[in-house]
Amino acid sequence: MDDFFCNIGLGKKRSNDPTRKKRSLVDTSALWRQGQTLKIAFIEEDIDPQLKQGIIDGIMDWQPYINLRLVIVDFANDPGHIRISTVIDNLGKGWSALGTDALEIEPTNATLNIGVALEHEDFLRAVRHEFGHALGLEHEHQHPLANIPWDEPKVYDHYRPKFAGFRDELRKDNLTEEEIDQYIEEMIYESVLAKMPYEGYAGNRYDRESVMHYDFPNELTIGDWKIGKNTEISEGDKEMIRLLYPNVLPSPSRS
Which domain CATH number covers 88? Predict the structure, then answer.
């Protein structure tokens, strides 16, 4: 069973932005309006009811810590703000537009994909992680204070196969193979190695237990440094999301 892998670069590409926007972890440009009702729709009409409910349950785990009201709507009647697909393909096990970048995506297209099955051991981890992106959270391993001692050549070797699914997608843009190779190298750098800018940093600590953190083996770092699979929304995640969406705790709404 393959591990969950978040390919946030695909969410960036589908929001018509082929490069990652340079944001800090607390930049408000990707945040939803304070106190707003955030409508969530499922694109696939024939989605398995248990799978749908499992995704809803994972999404609603964020609800107690934000001042947004999360509401599930019927895609046939309302495209919502966030549109979920459950496609398992070669483009990565999961991806999401970052916060309000979802508004740049055509209302007929998904803004978030859960690419792991309900029975997968990483299922809830994947849902919580991708919806963290949908709320505006970036990857925790890119925290400006992370200071991970990456062995960069090994990082590129490790992640190239995970980004290989992009090749067919990028060929549709009439890129040459050399341009595609360069794009993938840049995407690995921007998704794994690059740190978020320190500007705008609000003092939240780096959190090795964050559900927004990539897991990676010791072999990708210099010295004894690795991260396991973080499945739960950590105390640091709660601190961060309360900072971004403070004060109001509405009751969850489900259908």
Answer: 3.40.390.10
Categorize the per-residue pLDDT at 21 as very low, low, confident or very high, splitting at 50, 70 and 90. very low
Q: What is the DSSP string of 198-241?
A: STT--SPPP-TT-TTSPPB-GGGBSSS--B----S--HHHHHHH
b/e per residue, 110-135, with b = 16+ CB within 10 A?
bbbbbbbeeebebbbbbbbbbbbbbb
The reported pLDDT for the residue numbered 17 is 44
Residue 174 in domain = yes
pTM: 0.87
Mean pLDDT of the chain: 86
Helix H or strand E encompassing 242? helix 235-244
- CA 214 to centroid of chain Cα atoms: 10
Residue 2 above 70 pLDDT? no
What is the domain extent for residue 206? 8-244
**Strand, coil or helix: what is 5?**
coil
Does residue 137 fall inside a structural domain? yes
Residue 190 covered by a domain: yes
Q: Which residue has the tokens 């248990």?
A: 50
Which two tokens mark 112? 């978030």
Beta strands in the chain (DSSP E): 37-42, 69-73, 82-85, 94-96, 112-114
